[in-house]
Structure formats: C-alpha cells, structure tokens
Amino acid sequence: MSQSTIKSLIQDTQPQRKIIHLDMDAFYASVEQRDNPQLRGKPLVVGGDPSGRGVVAAASYEIRKFGVRSAMSCYEAKRRCPEAIFVRPRFEVYRQVSQQIREIMLSLTDLVEPLSLDEAYLDVTGIKEHHGSATLMANWLRAQIYEQTQLRASAGVSFNKMLAKIASDINKPNGIAVITPDQADAFIATLPIERFHGIGKATAKRLHEMGIYTGADLRATPVDTLEYEFGKRGRFYSEIAHGNDTRPVKAERKHKSVGSETTFRDNLSDTESLLVQIFEQNADAFEQLTKKGRRGHTITLKIKYADFTQITRSHTLNTPFPTAESAHYWLQKLLADAPRHLPIRLVGVTYSNLTSLDDLNTQPDLFGL
C-alpha cells in the first residue's frame, strides 16, 4: 500500500478540521479612534510624526483610500494625504486589549495560536457549542469582541490554516467568509498567486516569469520544477495549490524570553526605515519586560527576508540592559552586521537570559557602566 493511500485512509478516519482565523480590523488605529472620539472618521496614522520622520505602523481605513499602508514612510503618507493625523503607538494599551480579546477566544477553545497582537488561529474541531458550527462560532466571537471592546473583527473559516487566513481578508472590514472543502479546489484555482500566504512579491515575480499566475497554474506545475526553483519551499507551494495544509494550531506556550516582531505590508530596504521599526519593536519588548518585572542580558535581532529565509543576531552583556534606549547601539550594530542582499519583510527584537528586578534591587551598582 502506497504512502499516499495510507495518508488518505488516515485522513478519512479523522474528523474534518474546523479552523478560524480571526483578524482585528486596523487594530492599532481602531483602538486610538475608540479611545479618542475626535479621531473617529479621520485619516489616522499610528507611528511617526507630521514632519515625515518614521514609518507608518498602522493606518485607519479612512486613510487607506489614499494608498497609505503600514511600513510606508510617514513622508510619503503625508504627501498622499496632507490631512493625515499622526499619533504615537501605545503598545501597552494594545497589548491589554489584545489580552482581553485572547480571553474571549480561550473561553471557546484552548487551541488558540496568536500570530500577533491583532490576529490568531483557533482550532474549533469537535466543539459542540453553537451547534458545532465554526461559522456560528466565528460570528459569536466577533459579536463578543465588539460587545466587550467596541472593536470590529473579521474572520475566515475553513478546514486548514492557509484557507482560513485567506478567507478572513475577503470581506474586510467587519466581515466573515467561509471556504468549505467542496469549494476549495475551485476557489484556489482562480486565486492569484499573490494571495497565497507565504508567497511574497519576489516569489510572485519569479512565478510570473515561469508563466504561473493563478492557483490553477501553480497546481499544474510539477513539484520537481518548483523544488528546483525554490528549494524545500517549492513543495510547500505545490501543497497549498492543492489545498493541503496540515499545520496544527499551536497553543501559546510560555517562553524564557520576551520579544516583539512585526511583518511589513511592503518589504523594506533602507536602513533608516528599518531602524525605526526595530526601535519600536524594542520599545514594545522592553515594556513587556518591565511589566513582568524582568531585565534581559541578551538581545536578539530577528530578520526575515523577502524570500522567507531568516537570520538572528545576538549580543550579551555582563549586566542587563537597563533601558530600551541602552539597546539602540547594539541593535544598530546587529543590523549593520546582517546581510542585506534582499529586501526585509519582518524584524523582531527579543530579550533573553532574564533577571528579576527584585534581584537587581539588591545590587544597586549593577547598572553602572
């Protein structure tokens, strides 16, 4: 009996997975508009300042119609929309709201995999509430989130993570979309390859050069050809073109480190914009450390490139980093030491090798230089 036959038999005996991808609508900007009525209905940028310095961390829907997106320079955002209003991020507030939303999710299932502060996967397979309907569960989650936070969320429902994530973007904002097993093949066939999670601009360009523009084109391409062009990711591309994504929803685990990362809507190349984003993630990570009563001896910069390869660069001090700003020198150095052969799609900052603040308080000279 072939391995593919065995795999098929195993799948036939298992219940159909039910996956929800929940994505908050313009999360940072929506929180700011909720908390400040004067910002409601206005073209809002979270991050940077009106002088043009910095990078857009989030954009309200009112300003998106001008073509303003996250990771765009604030100078360009101001050029496209002179009436833009700029506010600084309040990561501590966003994190508190995110935790509130997380508790709502966990009241439905323990299988919650956060991707960031504003999105998560839920595996609701086998849950009996709401008549066992993942669609009803997703709508219940959206209603509960709005009732408790006054924030809107969109949801995608399907039988795997890839399709659920794509579905959550179909009817944004404040919408829901469902892709059933019977609909999947036809849906994937017409889907532009740029819409597949995991295929960025650089990969899409190479696929276009191979004459591949849709899911149907990708599905018809031999896996050997894709592996030759893209290495082991080529097989992943072939699998998703056939609707196969067996990745489990992984419940959040406690780590011995604290970090923050962000994925850019458009890849970045210039050092100034990257440093703005890195320093913002550093500030967020350090705030989390402080809330936990910890300090870190080791700081790590994570970089993911346009082709989805990633590297980390770390530096360790004998004494822990006393402030977020004290890490800026080393973060700049770590970025300068990293290869810059491709545009960058994600940066992250993590503190590890942690020390309790209570322990440091017994050693008042520990922060001395």
From TrEMBL:
Its cofactor is Mg(2+). The active site is at E119. InterPro entries: DNA/RNA_pol_sf (IPR043502), DNA_pol_Y-fam_lit_finger_sf (IPR036775), DNA_pol_Y-fam_little_finger (IPR017961), DNA_polymerase-Y (IPR050116), DNApol_IV (IPR022880), PolY_HhH_motif (IPR024728), Rev_trsase/Diguanyl_cyclase (IPR043128), UmuC (IPR001126). The keyword DNA-binding applies. The keyword Zinc does not apply. GO terms for molecular function: damaged DNA binding; DNA-directed DNA polymerase activity; magnesium ion binding. Residues 19-200 form the UmuC domain. Poorly processive, error-prone DNA polymerase involved in untargeted mutagenesis. Copies undamaged DNA at stalled replication forks, which arise in vivo from mismatched or misaligned primer ends. These misaligned primers can be extended by PolIV. Exhibits no 3'-5' exonuclease (proofreading) activity. May be involved in translesional synthesis, in conjunction with the beta clamp from PolIII. GO terms for biological process: DNA repair; DNA-templated DNA replication; error-prone translesion synthesis; SOS response. It catalyses: DNA(n) + a 2'-deoxyribonucleoside 5'-triphosphate = DNA(n+1) + diphosphate. It is found in: Cytoplasm. CDD domains: PolY_Pol_IV_kappa. Belongs to the DNA polymerase type-Y family. Binds 2 magnesium ions per subunit. Gene3D superfamilies: 3.30.70.270, 3.40.1170.60, 5' to 3' exonuclease, C-terminal subdomain, DNA polymerase, Y-family, little finger domain. Monomer. One of its GO terms (cellular component) is cytosol. HAMAP family: DNApol_IV (MF_01113). This is DNA polymerase IV. Its main location: cytoplasm. The record marks Y28 as: Substrate discrimination. Keywords: Cytoplasm, DNA damage, DNA repair, DNA replication, DNA-binding, DNA-directed DNA polymerase, Magnesium, Metal-binding, Mutator protein, Nucleotidyltransferase, Transferase. Mg(2+) binds at D23, D118.
